[in-house]
Amino acid sequence: GENVEQHPSTLSVQEGDSAVIKCTYSDSASNYFPWYKQELGKRPQLIIDIRSNVGEKKDQRIAVTLNKTAKHFSLHITETQPEDSAVYFCAASRSYGNKLVFGAGTILRVKS
Amino acid sequence: GAVVSQHPSWVICKSGTSVKIECRSLDFQATTMFWYRQFPKQSLMLMATSNEGSKATYEQGVEKDKFLINHASLTLSTLTVTSAHPEDSSFYICSARRDTNTEAFFGQGTRLTVV
Fold first, then answer.
1. Which of the 8 DSSP states describes residue A83?
2. DSSP category for residue B56
3. What angle do CA B25, B31, B110 make, to 5 degrees?
4. Would the CB atoms of B93 and A98 count as touching at under 8 Å?
5. Are B23 and B32 in contact (CB under 8 A)?
6. B15's torsion region: left (phi>0), alpha (psi -120 to 50) or beta?
């Protein structure tokens, strides 16, 4: 089955700096890759996603890149703010809306 | 937007008892619901996929007789943790989607504590 690895497990950055979180997946049939932000005790919130026919997608300060050949995808947050502090999860699925296999998560701390 | 609600948000039960968690799609009909479990400081792990009107499909290692899933209507799926033990204490989250190739929306989660 699918296996998703996520790095780093924790990431501390200074406010205004960029943050990058990387994930790799194993199932070549996966073609949908969402990123979620989760605050303590809350539901995961979809912040951006990418499908396998696209190499990069951007939404304001957040961008995701996908290298399907290498089976890895990354989340980029620019101009980080304290409210970006949360746990971020990558995930992979064989199709949009299908069951998700999650990475282990990254605790992002933005220091002001 | 699509709203998925779970009830209760948190529950404490005694070891050996059963607990039922509800997942409702409030403004759409969900043909499929997914149940995930999240232990403290860990990731979400899929437990089972539930399609309306049919038996749930459980992931490897998840005991179907312990975690009973019912999806009797297009707006409601239930997860019953039977004979709960302290190691079942976790955050249980459902997600629901209208149809294939549509977004699955998460519920707010249910914090189960077994004492």
1. G
2. P
3. 40
4. no
5. no
6. beta
The beta-strand segments (E) located in chain A are 4-7, 10-14, 19-25, 32-38, 45-51, 56-59, 62-67, 72-77, 86-92, 101-102, 106-111
Q: For residue B52, what are the β-bridge partners?
A: none
Residue of chain B minimizing CA distance to A100: B46
Nearest to A3 by CA among A32, A26, A21, A19: A26
Contact assessment for residue A74 and residue A56, using Cβ atoms and an 8 Å cutoff: no
Interface of B with A in 53-72 (CB under 8 A): 60
Q: What is the pLDDT of residues A59-104, one digit of tens each?
A: 999 999 999 999 999 999 999 999 999 999 999 999 998 999 999 9
